């Protein structure tokens, strides 16, 4: 007695006129394929440094606040690589402060990706 087992069997007719049929048997288990669908959502925050009399110190304060903001976003939202984009944006000097102080701020942006569908074949 002859027993054959296969995970994947394909059969098709040859294009020849004699009517032969080809049967292909592949051994092993095919690797599962996964398709994932994500939703991307943009967000904005304001990042502001501390007011300083020195323009350079004010810019450095903004840079520190930018790094703190990035760290906070990563710790909060990036548990499973949810952050797709992260940028503090371009700093702008607020010249309307009293006593000739400088304060830099920017519009920070980040994009969050959320898995909405996962299918394994």
Can you put this structure into words, describing what you see?
With 121 residues, the protein is α+β, with helices and mostly antiparallel strands. It has 1 helix and 6 strands; from the N terminus they run E-E-E-H-E-E-E. It has a domain at 39-120: Dodecin subunit-like (2-Layer Sandwich). It has one helix at residues 55-77, and strands at residues 8-13, 21-26, 34-48, 83-87, 92-94, 103-120. Strands 3, 4, 5 and 6 form a 4-stranded antiparallel sheet that branches. A two-stranded antiparallel sheet has the order 1-2.
List the helices and strands and how they pair.
Blueprint: E1 8-13, E2 21-26, E3 34-48, H1 55-77, E4 83-87, E5 92-94, E6 103-120
Antiparallel strand pairs: 1-2, 3-6, 4-6, 5-6
Protein traits:
19% helix; two-stranded antiparallel ribbon; Dodecin subunit-like; alpha+beta; 6 strands
Mean pLDDT: 80
Could you name the CATH class of the domain at 39-120? Answer: Alpha Beta
**Structural class, judged by helices and strands?**
alpha+beta
Largest sheet properties: 4 strands, antiparallel
The number of helical segments is: 1
Question: How do the helices and strands follow one another from N- to C-terminus?
Answer: EEEHEEE
Radius of gyration: 30 Å
Residue share in β-strands: 35-45%
CATH architecture heading of the domain at 39-120: 2-Layer Sandwich
**Low-confidence sequence ranges:** 1-9
Overall 3D geometry?
rod-shaped
As a percent range, the share of helical residues equals: 10-25%
Tell me the distance between the termini: 34 Å
- Strands, count: 6
CATH topology of the domain at 39-120: Dodecin subunit-like
Q: What is the assembly state of the chains in this entry?
A: single chain
């Amino acid at each position: 007695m002859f027993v054959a087992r296969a995970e994947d069997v394909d059969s098709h007719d040859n294009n020849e006129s004699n009517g032969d049929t080809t049967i292909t048997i592949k051994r092993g288990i095919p690797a599962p394929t996964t398709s994932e669908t994500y939703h991307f959502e943009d967000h904005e925050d304001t990042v502001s440094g501390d007011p300083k009399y020195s323009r350079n110190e004010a810019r450095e304060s903004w840079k520190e606040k930018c790094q703190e903001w990035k760290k906070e976003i990563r710790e909060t939202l990036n548990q499973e690589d949810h952050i797709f984009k992260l940028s503090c944006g371009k700093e702008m000097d607020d010249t309307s402060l009293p006593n000739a102080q400088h304060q830099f701020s920017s519009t920070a942006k980040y994009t969050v990706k959320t898995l909405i569908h996962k299918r394994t074949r």
